[in-house]
Amino acid sequence: xxxxxxxxxxxxxxxxxxxxxxxxxxxxxxxxxxxxxxxxxxxxxxxxxxxxxxxxxxxxxxxxxxxxxxxxxxxxxxxxxxxxxxxxxxxxxxxxxxxxxxxxxxx
Length: 107
Hints:
Elements (H helix, E strand, L loop, with lengths): L1 H29 L1 H8 L9 H8 L4 E7 L2 E8 L3 E6 L2 E7 L12
Antiparallel strand pairs: 1-2, 2-3, 3-4
C-alpha cells in the first residue's frame, strides 16, 4: 500500500511539473492573457488558429469557403462546436446546445 501511495504522489508531481512546463511554453509563445484562456480550454475572438488549436486541439473537420472577399474557414469539433476564421483570426464561435427529444407517446 505504501508503494502504491508513493507511486500516486510521484504521478501527481510529474503531472504538475508537466502542466507547469506547458504553461511556461504557452506564456512564452502566446503571452500571459491569451495563455489563461488556452490553459483553461477556452477560445476568444481575435485568437489565431494556432492559439485555438492549442486550446481545443485539432478540429475533426475543416470547411473552407473562398469568395471574392477572401477565404474563410469553419473548424468543426464533434459536430456541435464551430470556430469561424477570417484569414488567421477567429471571428466567431458557436456551440450548439442539443436537447434530447422526449420519447413520450402522443395521444
